[in-house]
Amino acid sequence: MTPSIIFFCFLAYTVLLFVITWITSRKATNRTFFIGNKASPWFVVAYGMIGASMSGVTFMSVPGWVGTTSFSYMMVVVGYVFGYITIATVLLPLYYKMNLTSIYSYLESRFGFWSYKTGAFYFILSRVIGASFRMFLVVNVLQIFVFDAWNIPFFITVLIFIVLILLYTFKGGIKTIIWTDLIQTTFMLLALLVSIYLIIDHMGLDLGSMFRKVMTNPYSKMVFTDWNDKRFFLKELLSGAFIAIVMTGLDQEMMQKNLSCRSLKDARKNMFTYTGIMVVVNFLILFLGASLYLFAGFKGIEMPLRSDDLFPTIAINYLGPVAGIVFMIGLISAAYPSADGALTSLTTCFSIDFLGLNKKTGLTEKQKQRTRYMVHVAFAIVLLVVIVIFRTINDRAVIDKLFTVAGYTYGPLLGLYSFGLFTRLSVRDGWVPVIAVISPVICYLLSSYSVHIFNGYKFGFELLILNGFITFVGLLLLSRRNSR
Q: In the CATH scheme, what architecture does the domain 3-397 have?
């Protein structure tokens, strides 16, 4: 595959997104940008959320991750199911009852000003870091296979990518993203299915034979029973449930799409449908990962230094030009939702939670729109800078970093919402930011020295639960009897 062909695929896909943008962003208002005029079809949201939740990280990292963790990630996915059920039955009714645009407004009504700002700040911090990780992974592949050949610096590659996303989310916001996610999910799933088919074909097998080969291989092991192992099934099951709750239910980007549905009933149907599709898609990704390792052994291919590089290496160098094109389209399809939803939700959060744009009755619609445009551009610049910085420090599987960071930044959100929902106590609001800083620091120290402190125990994704629990206890110590 030549750089020109890859670039043409990227360009053609981008043009398709801009056509959708033109159709969906006509006569767009601030209400359109923030909540899609409360008119998004639930089935479109459900299907599109698959691409948004998977992103380039899952598309590339999880297949390579199979080599060291086998299918243990499916225990996390099973945990997701319980988390999504909680979102549909507990959080969505709350958000719809309060008619929220930013979900962090709940914290202000429940606790007060500083709790509210703390929740919004932690979302912005975690979304900037997480979105930058995801975008880096994809942009770095484009850099290696396209722009390095043309001597274009990495900074310029990132700049092009960010500017394109900025342009097509500028006016339509969440309404545009709902429909672009539909296209992006479709292409990503096609890339997975075609890649699996081509691997099976190159190995001279049929689907049944390949399925049996994968499921009888150690790669397919899902349940690990060693308590000290990071892959211990109970750790992953519980962690998956809480990861789903915080990274979807307490995440403005994902909930903004749910809140754009016509009603609570539609939003719930969206969540349940999304849950079923998500389980199937994650299994397909793991099946692809095992197939890649079996194919590498079959062909005698040397393993790349980083597991993230396994999928692109085989797709582009060993499966023929069709596989290379399909992989690049799938990767680009997985990349865009990582950035467009993040940029839109960051703009929404900062505009509503820090600037109070929805409360400023003295401003005209055009003045509010102008402010929103400025915030949108500012966050695009922030993402650009963080991605460039991240390239200099990347040293391990990106998905591992993503969930590690989430464990620190989403933990205080988990503690705040849990305390708000399951107690009737108030807190000393001014001390909440202190608790939200102390909790991640304690978790970091425990994680760093857990092997020595806890006789060989290593923290995995359950660090998120611990973080939320410490925040909850801290809030309890600061609590007062009167309720808000």
A: Up-down Bundle (1.20)
